[in-house]
Specification:
Order of helices and strands: HEEEEH
Number of strands: 4
Strand order of the largest sheet: 1-2
Strand content: 5-15%
Helix content: 25-40%
Oligomer: single chain
Length: 71
Amino acid sequence: MANPKKQKTHSATHKGRSHLALKKVPLAKCSKCGKMRKPHTVCTFCGTYKNREVLKIESAKAAKSTKAVKK
């Protein structure tokens, strides 16, 4: 296995890691509820994608009331 002849300098190490920096995630507004979400993904708050309801999401209040009724 090959070994380096000399130790890599501090600056060379950091230059090699330049592509590992975190990037800001772009956000888009949901067309139905107006919450911020990642582009090209389903809105986790209302469950819509491209103005269609894809997921059925119950609100927290509705979920609590159905649990109380079931008991």
